[in-house]
Amino acid sequence: MNEQLVFFSLSKDELRKLIQDSIREELNEKKQKELLSFKETCELLGISASCLNQWKAQGKIPFKKLSKRVFFSRSEILDALKESNYSKLRQLN
Description:
This protein is mainly α. It is built from five helices and three strands; from the N terminus they run αβααββαα. It is elongated. The termini are far apart.
C-alpha cells in the first residue's frame, strides 16, 4: 500500500466551508434515501432485528420484497408510526 500525503493551506473560513459543505451533502444523501435495508430500518427505529421481524410478521410495519431481499419505505414506516403511536408499539414487544 503506497499512500501519499498531500498538504495544502486553507484559511479558517475555507476549512469551515469545506466541512459544512461535506456535512450538508451527507445529510442530503441520507434524506434522499427512500428504500431502507433491514439493518438501516432497525437503526432508524432503534429496535433489534428480532423485533423488526416480529413487527413485519404481525403486519405492523409495511415492507417490500425484491427477490429474496426485504426493503422498507422510509415514508411508509413514518406514516405507520404516526398512525400507531410508536411508544405504544414498542411497549407491545
